[in-house]
C-alpha cells in the first residue's frame, strides 16, 4: 500500500468566534498509529474533524501529500482517507455485510455497482475485522465491540491508506477495547496510517507509535509515547500528579498513584 | 461494441453451493472459479464487458424493491381502470379500454377521454409528485415525520396560491405562486432551524410553526374577501382534483419527469444520507451540496403538485410509508414512493367521487380521514422505526 502523508500548516479551526485549534502545524508519521490525547475540550475531536475535512479551516490548511484537502473532490478524498466518527449512525436493519459494502461506495459508480474487486475487498475486510461470522446479522443485534469492529470493517473496505478514528473505544468495556486496539495495530502493520483520538493516556502509550498531546487547541507534546510522556506532561494536560512506571510485560508506560495536584 | 450480457441470480449464500452455471463458456474457462462475482444477498447483478477491454460494467437490482415496484405498478393500473369505469355513471370494464382509443359509445368516449382520463392523469401526477417529495424530505431529515405536508411547505404553497386567487380575482399563475410559496416556506423553515440543520426535531417543529402561520394567512385572506371569491379559492384550501388550473397539469408533468430523473440520479447519495453526516461525508458524499439538491427537488415537486391539487400533503406521508414497507430496507424507494403515492391518490379520489355520489368529497378530505389515523398509528406503534 502506498504511503500517504497527512500534515497541517498553521491550521486554525473555529466554532463561531471560539478558536478551538490555534495555528497548529504537525505531520503524522506514515504507516504508524498516532494517538491524539488531551483533556476534555482541548480540541482533539475538532482536530480530527478538520483532518477529515468535516470542519473547514478558518486559516491554514490540511495537506495530503502536499495538497490542500479542501481542493480534493469528496470521492477522491474518500478513496484516500477513511473516517469513523464518534457517533456513527447507520440506517436501521442494516446487516454487517451491507454496512461493509457501503465502504466500496467511493470506488463505485452508476455503471460499476458491484465488481469482482468489490467482492474480494469486502470479503477480506470482513475477515480482517473478524466479523465474517456476523456478516448476515443486523447491526442492531450486535454487542458494542462487535458493532465497532463492523464499522471498522467498513472503513477497511474503503481501502484507504489513511484511517481516522474518533474515540473508537469510548463506549466499550475493557475486553472489547482490546479487540479494537489489536485490530488497529494489525491495520498499521499492513501499512495503513492510523490516527485516533483517545481519552485514555495509558492505552495511547500502549498502542500508539506516535503521540500528539493537545491542550487549549495547542500542541503540548509530539513524539513516541516513551519519549514524550512524563509526569510533567501529565500534570500539564490533566492537572494531576502521578508516578509513571513501565508495564512489566510490554514496557509501555502506566500511570500509578494518580492524584490531584498538590495532594 | 459487442457486449456479453450476463444475469446472475444470487442471494444464495456463497456456501450453499448452488451457483448458477455461467452462461458464457468462454468466460468460465477464463475466470478462476474463486473470482466469480456473486451478487450480494437479495440482488440481481447485471454485468457486461466492454469488448475493447476498458473494464466491466455492473448493475445491482434489489429484488425485493423490484418486485415491490412491479406490484405497485399492477395495482396502480388496476386502480386506474376502476377509476375510469366507476363514477356517477358507471361503465362496464369491457367498455373502458375501447373508449380509451375512441371506439364504442360516444357518451362513454366523452366520459373517459374528456372527463375522467385528464383527472386520472392529474391524480397520478400529483400523487407521484407528493410521494417522491415526501420520500426525499424524509430521507433528508432522517425522520419519517418530516414530509413537506407536515413541515409547512404545502401550506406555504397554498397561501401564495390563494393570495393570487383572491388578490387578482382570477388566478394569474397559481403554479408559479405555489412554487414561490413552497420555496418561501422551505427557506423560512431552514432559517428558523438554523444551526440544527435538517436533522432532528428542531427542523420539524420549525416547519410546523411555519405551516401554522401560512395556514392562518390563508384563512385571513379568505375572511377578508367576498364570499364568491372565497368560494373560488376554497378548493385550494382542502385539496381537490375538481378544479385544476389550466396549464398546471402540463407543468407538473414536466416537473415530475425532471424531478423523478433527478431523484433517481440521487439514489446513491440518498442511501448515504441515511447515515449520520460524518459517516456520509467520510464515504465521499458532498453532504451540503447533495442536501440542497434533494431539498430543491422536493420543494419543486411539492409546489407544482399543490398548484394542481391543493394541499393533499398526507400523500407524502402515506405513499413513502407503503413504499418502504414493501421495498427492501437497503435502499431509498424513490420509484416505489412515486407509484404508491399515485396509487393512494387515485384510490382516494375515486373514493371521494363514488362514496357519497352525487356529492363529491374533495380528495384532501379523504386523505385526511385516512391519513390522520395513519399518522397516529406511526406515532403509537411500539417498534416504531425512525426512518426507512
Automatic annotation (TrEMBL), chain A:
Localisation per UniProt entry: Cell membrane
Primary residence: membrane
InterPro entries membership: AAA+_ATPase, ABC_transporter-like_ATP-bd, ABC_transporter-like_CS, P-loop_NTPase, Siderophore_ABC-ATPase
Domain ABC transporter: 6-241
Membrane-protein topology: Peripheral membrane protein
Keywords from the UniProt entry: ATP-binding, Cell membrane, Ion transport, Iron, Iron transport, Membrane, Nucleotide-binding, Transport
Single Gene Ontology MF annotation: ATP hydrolysis activity
Pfam name, any one: ABC_tran
Superkingdom in the source lineage: Bacteria
A Gene Ontology cellular-component term: plasma membrane
One BP annotation, GO: iron ion transport
Family: Belongs to the ABC transporter superfamily.
Protein name according to UniProt: ABC transporter ATP-binding protein
Organism: Billgrantia kenyensis
Amino acid at each position: 500500500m502506498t504511503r500517504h502523508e497527512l500534515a497541517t500548516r498553521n491550521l486554525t479551526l473555529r466554532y463561531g468566534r471560539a478558536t478551538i485549534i490555534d495555528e497548529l502545524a504537525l505531520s503524522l508519521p506514515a504507516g504508524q498509529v498516532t494517538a491524539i490525547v488531551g483533556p476534555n475540550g482541548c480540541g482533539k475531536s475538532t482536530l480530527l474533524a478538520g483532518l477529515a475535512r468535516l470542519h473547514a479551516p478558518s486559516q491554514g490548511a490540511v495537506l495530503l501529500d502536499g495538497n490542500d484537502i479542501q481542493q480534493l473532490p469528496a470521492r477522491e478524498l474518500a478513496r484516500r482517507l477513511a473516517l469513523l466518527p464518534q457517533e456513527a449512525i447507520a440506517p436501521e436493519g442494516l446487516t454487517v455485510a451491507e454496512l461493509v459494502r457501503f465502504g466500496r461506495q467511493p470506488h463505485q459508480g452508476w455503471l460499476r455497482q458491484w465488481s469482482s474487486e468489490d467482492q474480494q475487498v469486502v470479503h477480506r475486510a470482513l475477515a480482517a475485522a473478524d466479523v465474517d461470522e456476523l456478516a448476515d446479522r443486523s447491526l442492531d443485534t450486535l454487542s458494542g465491540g462487535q458493532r465497532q469492529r463492523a464499522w471498522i470493517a467498513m472503513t477497511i473496505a474503503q481501502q484507504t491508506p489513511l484511517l481516522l478514528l474518533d474515540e473508537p473505544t469510548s463506549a466499550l468495556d475493557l475486553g472489547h477495547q482490546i479487540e479494537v486496539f489489536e485490530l488497529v495495530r494489525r491495520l498499521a502493520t499492513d501499512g495503513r496510517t492510523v490516527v485516533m483520538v483517545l481519552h485514555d493516556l495509558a492505552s495511547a502509550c500502549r498502542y500508539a507509535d506516535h503521540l500528539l498531546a493537545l491542550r487549549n487547541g495547542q500542541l503540548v507534546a509530539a513524539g513516541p509515547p516513551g519519549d514524550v510522556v512524563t509526569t510533567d506532561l501529565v500534570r500539564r494536560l490533566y492537572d494531576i500528579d502521578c508516578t509513571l512506571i513501565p508495564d512489566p510485560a510490554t514496557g509501555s508506560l502506566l500511570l500509578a498513584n494518580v492524584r490531584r495536584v498538590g495532594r | 461494441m459487442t457486449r456479453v450480457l450476463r444475469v446472475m441470480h444470487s442471494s444464495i449464500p456463497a456456501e450453499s453451493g448452488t451457483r448458477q452455471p455461467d452462461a458464457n463458456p468462454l468466460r468460465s474457462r477464463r475466470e478462476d472459479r474463486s473470482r466469480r462475482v456473486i451478487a450480494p444477498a437479495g440482488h440481481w447483478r447485471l454485468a457486461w464487458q466492454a469488448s475493447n477491454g476498458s473494464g466491466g460494467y455492473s448493475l445491482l437490482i434489489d429484488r425485493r424493491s423490484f418486485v415491490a415496484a412491479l406490484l405497485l405498478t399492477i395495482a396502480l393500473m388496476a386502480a386506474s381502470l376502476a377509476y375510469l369505469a366507476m363514477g356517477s355513471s358507471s361503465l362496464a370494464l369491457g367498455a373502458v379500454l375501447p373508449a380509451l382509443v375512441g371506439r364504442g359509445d360516444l357518451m362513454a368516449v366523452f366520459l373517459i377521454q374528456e372527463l375522467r382520463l385528464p383527472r386520472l392523469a392529474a391524480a397520478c401526477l400529483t400523487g407521484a409528485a407528493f410521494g417522491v417529495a415526501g420520500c426525499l424530505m424524509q430521507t433528508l431529515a432522517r425522520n419519517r415525520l418530516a414530509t413537506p405536508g407536515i413541515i409547512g411547505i404545502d401550506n406555504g404553497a397554498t397561501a401564495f396560491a390563494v393570495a393570487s386567487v383572491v388578490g387578482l380575482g382570477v388566478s394569474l399563475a397559481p403554479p408559479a405562486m405555489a412554487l414561490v410559496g413552497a420555496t418561501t416556506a422551505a427557506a423560512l423553515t431552514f432559517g428558523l432551524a438554523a444551526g440544527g440543520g435538517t436533522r432532528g426535531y428542531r427542523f420539524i417543529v420549525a416547519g410546523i410553526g411555519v405551516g401554522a402561520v401560512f395556514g392562518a394567512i390563508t384563512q385571513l385572506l379568505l375572511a377578508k374577501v367576498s364570499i364568491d371569491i372565497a368560494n373560488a379559492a376554497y378548493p385550494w384550501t382542502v385539496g381537490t382534483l375538481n378544479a385544476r388550473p389550466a396549464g398546471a397539469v402540463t407543468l407538473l408533468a414536466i416537473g415530475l419527469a425532471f424531478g423523478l430523473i433527478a431523484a433517481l440520479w440521487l439514489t446513491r447519495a440518498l442511501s448515504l444520507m441515511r447515515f449520520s453526516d460524518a459517516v456520509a461525508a467520510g464515504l465521499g458524499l458532498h453532504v451540503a451540496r447533495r442536501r440542497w439538491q434533494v431539498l430543491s427537488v422536493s420543494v419543486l415537486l411539492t409546489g407544482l403538485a399543490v398548484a394542481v391539487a391543493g394541499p393533499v400533503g398526507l400523500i407524502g406521508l402515506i405513499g413513502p410509508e407503503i413504499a418502504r414497507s414493501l421495498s427492501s430496507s437497503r435502499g431509498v424507494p424513490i420509484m416505489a414512493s412515486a407509484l404508491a403515492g399515485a396509487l393512494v391518490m387515485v384510490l382516494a379520489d375515486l373514493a371521494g367521487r363514488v362514496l357519497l355520489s352525487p356529492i363529491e368529497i374533495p380528495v384532501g378530505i379523504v386523505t385526511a380521514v385516512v391519513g390522520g389515523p395513519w399518522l397516529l398509528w406511526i406515532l403509537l406503534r411500539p417498534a416504531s422505526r425512525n426512518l426507512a
